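Design request, tokens follow.
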């Protein structure tokens, strides 16, 4: 009997252990989904193509489609994907022109305009159309895609804008299990609102699957079978869907935990599938920087704002430099503490990069460069025709640990604009004052405000604080530099990531660009031993300035193991 009793207890302990492990795994998969990292260098513009956008408008409304283009501002490559329903397409073009205005063709697709087609274009300088003008026109929403049909009345057109905030590229390679047969593709575009209307998603879905049986929104991580969430009424494009989300559904969507999928007779578990991603999510920063002539030892009124993100797994660093230097020549990254000059790490010059503001760049760091970054020994210096040795300089540091990256896509509803802004903050303990430096590109600016509100939600009009009134120049023109004392409500909203900076203009009096105030969250490059000195770069002083890493590990397995240990101790003590 004692042997049977011991056997039963061992079985119960084994089951308890497995339950704890499952609990930990479920918690990990839900709280740590495959997040789509934000990027400074890449931006997404979407389009819904239809015949009523063609000028003149045809009498027959037949064709329809969805598409999106991804612009990499580091390499100037524009990658466009289009899905449509035209029966006899003959070609496709990208043209420049506002809505309801025909313009000249900029680029022509060389691939066959099948139901789904895609192509990458390298944007280059032209005598009649400079590269800077091309990028500005694209970002201001002046480019459109046209898919031509054999019959002129069946042409469709779509303006490339930032009106959608959710998208997915569906492929047969991303299904779980992998789909059989010929490869297929599809595109899902969506607009999600947190309120007004409350937690509602509107999707447009197009695909080239021949024998489609179901079109769904599911939940799950890439590479694994998921669960059904919503079902579209139609299976053949054009496919529309309007769904009401719960709070949990919203969390899954915003964290990259949902996908769109089309099932077919040949592939009942999925013919095409793609993870739903937020358009231009806010990058997670590692360090920030403020650039000025003082740090470069020059008498210049120019300023600069630096935002840097770093991925510890790929060691890829992306950066945005927003500045007011005229005639910039070269951006250099060097290694040295504040007040010292150090060796060159890498550089961008005006022959290979566009150095007028804003400057976008990326680089895969070596082990020692990573060390320099995390030791806060890396700095940027921007040279110009007037100051060839450096007009402004800024140390990359964790001192200004709050930032805001202002864009049009963060507005509610989104605005399509090339204007943007960059802000860094230092929250001090003295009187809870926030030291700010804000730069933006809006010339007809009306106001620069601090407003209470979460991401994707309209701000509280009663909470508006004007940065201009607290800046040294008492002006909303860039740059705004000063300090503001926050009350209790401001402090709570600030710490809870429920504060944003909004810049209004004459063109957009209710806000043209907006940026959520976020805190830097450097990833952990462990097991890199930062206690060891660098073999190449020697610095004076101590290493007390090494960046402190946030505690963001998933604690579910620890909790599960702790519960297991407690239960084991209890059972052994009891029996």
């Amino acid at each position: 009997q004692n042997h049977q009793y011991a056997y039963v207890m061992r079985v119960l302990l084994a089951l308890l252990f497995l339950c704890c492990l499952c609990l930990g795994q479920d918690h990990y998969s839900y709280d740590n989904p495959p997040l789509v990292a934000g990027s400074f260098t890449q931006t997404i513009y979407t389009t819904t193509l239809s015949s009523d956008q063609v000028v003149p408008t045809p009498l027959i409304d037949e064709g329809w489609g969805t598409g999106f283009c991804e612009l990499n501002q580091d390499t100037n490559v524009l990658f466009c994907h289009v899905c449509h329903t035209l029966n006899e397409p003959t070609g496709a073009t990208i043209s420049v022109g506002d809505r309801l205005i025909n313009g000249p063709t900029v680029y022509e697709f060389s691939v066959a305009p099948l139901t789904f087609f895609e192509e990458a274009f390298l944007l280059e300088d032209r005598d009649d159309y400079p590269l800077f003008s091309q990028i500005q026109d694209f970002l201001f929403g002046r480019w459109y895609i046209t898919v031509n049909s054999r019959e002129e009345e069946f042409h469709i057109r779509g303006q490339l804008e930032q009106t959608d905030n959710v998208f997915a590229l569906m492929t047969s390679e991303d299904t779980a299990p992998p789909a059989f047969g010929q490869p297929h593709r599809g595109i899902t575009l969506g607009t999600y609102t947190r309120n007004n209307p409350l937690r509602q998603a509107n999707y447009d879905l197009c695909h080239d699957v021949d024998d489609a049986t179901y079109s769904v929104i599911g939940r799950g991580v890439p590479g694994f079978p998921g669960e059904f969430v919503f079902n579209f009424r139609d299976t053949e494009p054009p496919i529309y869907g309007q769904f009401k989300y719960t709070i949990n559904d919203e969390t899954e969507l915003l964290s990259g935990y949902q996908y769109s999928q089309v099932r077919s007779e040949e592939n009942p578990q999925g013919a095409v599938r793609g993870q739903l991603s937020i358009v231009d999510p806010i990058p997670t920063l590692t360090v920030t920087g403020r650039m000025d002539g003082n740090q470069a030892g020059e008498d210049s009124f120019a300023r600069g704002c630096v935002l840097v993100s770093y991925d510890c797994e790929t060691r890829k660093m992306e950066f945005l430099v927003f500045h007011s230097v005229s005639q910039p020549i070269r951006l250099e990254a060097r290694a040295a503490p504040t007040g010292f000059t150090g060796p060159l790490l890498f550089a961008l010059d005006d022959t290979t990069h566009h150095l007028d503001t804003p400057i976008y760049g990326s680089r895969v760091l070596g082990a020692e460069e990573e060390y320099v970054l995390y030791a806060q020994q890396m700095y940027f210096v921007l040279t110009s025709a007037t100051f060839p040795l450096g007009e402004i300089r800024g140390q990359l540091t964790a001192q200004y640990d709050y930032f805001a990256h202002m864009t049009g896509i963060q507005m509610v509803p989104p605005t399509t604009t090339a204007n943007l802004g960059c802000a860094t903050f230092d929250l001090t303990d003295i009187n809870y004052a926030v030291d700010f430096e804000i730069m933006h590109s809006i010339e007809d600016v009306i106001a620069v405000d601090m407003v209470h509100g979460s991401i994707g939600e309209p701000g509280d009009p009663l909470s508006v604080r004007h940065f201009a009134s607290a800046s040294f120049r008492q002006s909303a023109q860039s740059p705004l530099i000063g300090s503001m004392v926050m009350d209790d409500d401001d402090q709570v909203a600030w710490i809870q990531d429920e504060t944003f900076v909004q810049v209004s203009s004459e063109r957009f009096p209710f806000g043209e660009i907006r940026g959520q105030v976020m805190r830097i969250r450097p990833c952990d490059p462990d097991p890199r031993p930062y206690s060891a000195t660098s073999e190449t770069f020697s610095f004076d002083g101590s290493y007390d300035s090494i960046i402190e890493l946030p505690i963001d590990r998933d604690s579910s397995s620890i909790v599960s193991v702790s519960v297991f240990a407690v239960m084991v101790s209890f059972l052994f003590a009891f029996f």
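Comment from the thread starter after seeing the answer: thanks! The longest helix spans residues 2-31.
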